[in-house]
Design brief:
This protein is mostly helical. Helix content is 73%, strand content 0%. It folds into two domains: 50 residues; 42 residues, no CATH class. The protein is rod-shaped, with a radius of gyration of 27 Å.
Length: 92
Amino acid sequence: MPISIRHLALIVAVALQASALGGCSGINEKLAAGITDTLPQWAGGLPPDAPPRPGTAKYEEFMRERERQRLEPAASREQTAQSPSSGLDAVH
């Protein structure tokens, strides 16, 4: 059974579409993290209070601050949490 030009064109078209689809998934995997960091929250991006991504300098600083707060005694954490709210109550 000889292969006609029409069959050959169809095979090439399907192979081209399959390889293009595979290329899109590889690109999206690498770009997804960067794009979500730049999207505003209303468009589905990260909220403003989200921690930084691992591997960055801000992440290391964030983890050091978090560890410092964890090791801080609970009594001093309660005092710092109450002092700003008491100041706001006096203003209102």
